[in-house]
């Protein structure tokens, strides 16, 4: 039979972007920063504008499609009708120092509030200093001190007179550590005498023992009196200081109150006004802190006495004209929620606890948007659960973490009320996976912005490509692209999309090609980035990444892998598979063989039996068996034992793109008709025998071409593909040249029967209305062999 009607011509296979189209679309300044994603942009804009709870956004799509660029662009351009941002700060909690108070102020007010508090402290310092120099205060203070000192001196004099009358005297003695202390000693002959000396005299009989005992008894009694007197005097001194402090307080109270009222008048927030009232009270109860050189009771050296009077600003939105947009590239717990610094020496200070608090990304983004990679956040379970709590409650808690010198976890700052919208960027299936596995996710992330990896190829999108190419070369200082160079880059975008009617939106790959083409052009000494440079960049990338491809090809050519690229064979077909390494994909042929005999086992999938078959390929084998039964065994049972195998394959097989190949091998084995080995086959099949399109078609064609090139062209070699895949073919220049010269061919079929014609040059034979095939046809041979097998099995069973 003539199979030329299935052979595709060069004109059908050749695809190019006309340079005239590039010239026509070039030079237009029109262009968007986000190209080809209208659906995703609409979802982003909706999720951005709706501030209701739960309208957080998950952006999905393939890497390199500009997801992050689009997100940051949309969020940065967003201008709400009413912008209501806040500043966030912590202040000292006078009633509970380890629970700093959270303060939220209108945007731009935090700095003014901090300045007001600072000026308040400085003014109280001045007032305290002025009051200390006041004549009226000095006179009253001096009178109080003088009165007390007179009373103190009188009581000491009375006590000393009583001692003298009874033969004792108060003395100051030197202790062993160099300090002085007050003691009482007896008098002998008008002079004091130490007790040790007096005891020696008693022992020597110089004074009676009874007299010594009486002196000692009086001594202890007087010592008790002196201690009681000194304690009473100390209490009196403290009472004096309290009276002086009360005098200062009474004098300063109206002045400090006036200062506080002036500040409160500038702030409407009730919490802020309440804290200012507490601040005023604390000033009055701690006036000693404002005495120059005076240290507060229990204060450690190096700690500023006024450290409690400050404002720790964590988020400052002064001057902001749009909501904040924060991108967190490492969303761990501390970066998201903030930290509490531990002191370097392991010794904390309650007064400065609020100054140790540092903000996290969530607080910085409050009132706006926090953008993160979904995988980075979700894999940290603690962070993910905590983020969900914030989204549910609207409250943010900053918690301390254990450290080498102790823990700041004892500090419990008040939570802030925050209004933040989370935008997560994830992979293509991230939304579906999280929606099905996390019930909280369904309620909290109601918007999915899906980025497509392709867009229609038309004047508008080609124009955007041109703008993109010009933008990259201009921004990065690359060679100016020529019109044919831009056309070649657009063609690469079509190839990436695997469809002639589409362009790829994976602009990171396009940008990489531009940079590599610039490198190749520079090496060749060119002044422009032309089509040859673009082609050279693609060849260079392939050469650098195709080591496994070359090794496998060498094994085929050397005979280590048994694969023919010429001649005929029964039950063997060269199938085509794509090896995808992520950054590089290539096609290679693989022998698919079939063996049959009478039996009842049906079609056995050897890969499946050995655990090397994926679910989709398992399904494909079952479809093959269904096709056999429906076409050839309508009036007799299918009694065949057949095995299908990917020869010399030791890795898992997935996908159904070789299912038509399996059918050809199986039919060949049943009918005992040889198939051409110089034609590699790809395509899926359904139970009706229709050929279905597959992916990676360009790589598969080029892969078999490279094998034939190494083995030597015969002029009869080629690839058979599904007819629907013609629109997916974007072949390299070399393969197109070989097709044009007749060295290589591509056939397109739509049914198994058409494929049989190409592989055998025989008439497959169309099924008649009675369900039979014309005598002598290929299909009639298959049906006859299956019928004979059924009879053989029946006879054997009988």
3D structure, described in words:
The chain is an alpha/beta fold and about 800 residues long. The protein is built from 27 helices and 32 strands. The strands form eleven sheets. The chain has a seven-stranded mixed beta sheet, with helices on both faces. A five-stranded parallel beta sheet has the order 8-11-16-1-17. A three-stranded antiparallel beta sheet has the order 3-2-7, with helices on one face. Helix 2 packs across helix 17, helix 5 packs across helix 8 and helix 17 crosses helix 19.
Topology:
Elements: H1 10-13, H2 19-25, H3 38-49, E1 57-61, H4 67-77, E2 86-91, E3 101-106, H5 109-132, H6 135-165, E4 168-174, E5 180-188, E6 191-192, H7 195-203, H8 209-264, H9 270-285, E7 311-315, E8 325-327, H10 333-337, E9 339-340, E10 357-358, H11 361-364, E11 369-373, H12 374-378, H13 381-393, E12 395-396, E13 402-403, E14 406-407, E15 416-417, E16 421-425, H14 430-437, H15 439-444, E17 447-451, E18 454-456, H16 459-475, E19 480-481, H17 483-497, E20 502-504, H18 507-523, E21 528-529, H19 531-545, H20 547-558, E22 568-569, E23 572-580, E24 585-598, E25 602-605, H21 606-609, H22 615-632, E26 640-646, H23 659-671, E27 675-676, E28 679-681, E29 684-685, E30 691-692, H24 697-711, E31 718-722, H25 733-741, E32 745-749, H26 752-760, H27 778-797
Parallel strand pairs: 1-16, 1-17, 8-11, 11-16, 19-21, 23-28, 25-26, 28-31, 31-32
Antiparallel strand pairs: 2-3, 2-7, 4-5, 5-6, 9-10, 12-15, 13-14, 18-20, 22-27, 23-24, 24-26, 29-30
């Amino acid at each position: 039979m003539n199979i030329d009607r299935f052979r595709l011509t060069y004109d059908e296979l050749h695809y190019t972007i006309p340079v005239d189209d590039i010239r026509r679309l070039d030079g237009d300044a029109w262009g968007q920063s986000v190209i080809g994603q209208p659906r995703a942009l609409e979802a982003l804009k909706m999720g951005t504008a709706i501030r209701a709870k739960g309208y957080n956004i998950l952006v999905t799509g393939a890497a390199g499609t500009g997801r992050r660029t689009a997100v940051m662009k949309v969020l940065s351009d967003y201008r709400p009708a009413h912008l209501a941002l806040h500043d966030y700060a912590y202040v000292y909690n006078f009633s509970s120092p380890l629970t700093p108070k959270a303060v939220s102020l209108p945007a731009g007010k935090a700095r003014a509030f901090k300045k007001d508090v600072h000026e308040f402290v400085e003014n109280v310092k001045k007032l305290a200093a002025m009051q200390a120099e006041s004549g009226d205060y000095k006179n009253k203070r001096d009178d109080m001190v003088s009165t007390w000192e007179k009373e103190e001196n009188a009581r000491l004099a009375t006590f000393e007179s009583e001692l003298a009358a009874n033969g004792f005297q108060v003395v100051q003695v030197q202790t062993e550590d160099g300090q002085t202390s007050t003691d009482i000693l007896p008098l002998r002959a008008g002079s004091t005498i130490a007790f040790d000396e007096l005891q020696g005299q008693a022992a020597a009989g110089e004074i009676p023992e009874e007299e010594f005992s009486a002196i000692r008894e009086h001594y202890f009694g007087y010592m008790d009196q002196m201690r009681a007197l000194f304690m009473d005097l100390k209490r009196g001194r403290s009472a004096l200081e309290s009276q002086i402090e009360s005098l200062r307080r009474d004098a300063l109270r109206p002045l400090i109150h006036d200062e506080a009222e002036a500040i409160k008048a500038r702030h409407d927030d009730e919490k802020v006004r309440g804290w200012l009232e507490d601040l005023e009270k604390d000033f009055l109860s701690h006036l000693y802190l404002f005495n120059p050189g005076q240290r507060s009771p229990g204060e450690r050296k190096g700690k500023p006495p006024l450290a409690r009077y400050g404002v720790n600003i964590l988020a400052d939105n002064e001057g902001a004209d749009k909501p904040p947009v924060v991108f967190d590239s490492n969303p761990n717990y501390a970066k998201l929620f903030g930290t509490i610094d531990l002191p370097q020496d392991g010794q904390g200070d309650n007064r400065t606890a609020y100054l140790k608090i540092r903000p996290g990304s969530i607080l910085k983004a409050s009132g706006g948007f926090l953008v993160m990679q979904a995988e980075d956040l979700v894999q940290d379970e603690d962070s993910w659960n905590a983020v969900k709590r914030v989204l549910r409650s609207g409250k943010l808690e900053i918690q301390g973490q254990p450290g080498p010198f102790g823990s700041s976890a004892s500090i419990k700052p008040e939570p802030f009320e925050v209004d933040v919208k989370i935008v997560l960027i994830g992979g293509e299936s991230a939304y579906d996976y999280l929606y099905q596995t996390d019930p909280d996710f369904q309620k909290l992330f109601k918007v999915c912005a899906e980025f497509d990896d392709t867009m229609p190829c038309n004047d508008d999108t080609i124009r955007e490509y041109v703008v993109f190419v010009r933008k990259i070369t201009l921004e990065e200082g690359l060679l100016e692209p020529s019109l044919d160079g831009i056309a070649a880059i657009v063609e690469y975008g079509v190839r990436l999309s695997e469809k002639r009617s589409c362009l790829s939106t994976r602009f990171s790959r396009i940008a990489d090609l531009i940079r590599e083409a610039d490198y190749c052009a520079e090496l060749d000494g060119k002044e422009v980035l032309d089509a040859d440079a673009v082609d050279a960049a693609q060849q260079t990338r392939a050469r650098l990444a195709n080591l496994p491809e070359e090794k496998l090809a060498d094994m085929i050519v050397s005979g280590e892998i048994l694969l023919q690229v010429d001649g005929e064979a029964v039950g063997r077909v060269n199938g085509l598979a794509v090896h995808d390494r992520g950054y590089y994909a290539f096609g290679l042929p693989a022998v698919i063989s079939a063996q049959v005999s009478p039996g009842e086992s049906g079609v056995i999938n050897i890969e499946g039996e050995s655990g090397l078959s994926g679910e989709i390929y398992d399904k494909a084998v079952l479809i093959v068996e269904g096709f056999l039964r429906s076409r050839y065994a309508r009036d007799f049972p299918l009694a065949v034992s057949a095995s299908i195998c990917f020869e010399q394959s030791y890795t898992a097989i997935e996908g159904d793109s070789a299912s038509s190949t399996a059918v050809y091998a199986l039919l060949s084995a049943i009918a005992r008709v040889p198939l051409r080995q110089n034609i590699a086959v790809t395509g899926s099949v359904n139970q009706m025998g229709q050929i279905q399109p597959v992916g990676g078609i360009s790589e598969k064609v080029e892969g078999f071409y490279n094998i034939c090139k190494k083995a030597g062209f015969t002029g009869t070699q080629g690839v058979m593909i599904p007819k629907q895949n013609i629109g997916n073919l974007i072949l390299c220049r070399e393969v197109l040249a070989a097709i044009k010269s007749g060295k290589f061919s591509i056939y397109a079929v739509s049914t198994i029967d058409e494929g049989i014609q190409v592989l055998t040059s025989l008439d497959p034979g169309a099924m008649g209305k009675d369900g039979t095939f014309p005598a002598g046809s290929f299909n009639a041979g298959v049906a006859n062999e299956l019928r004979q097998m059924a009879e053989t099995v029946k006879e054997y069973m009988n």
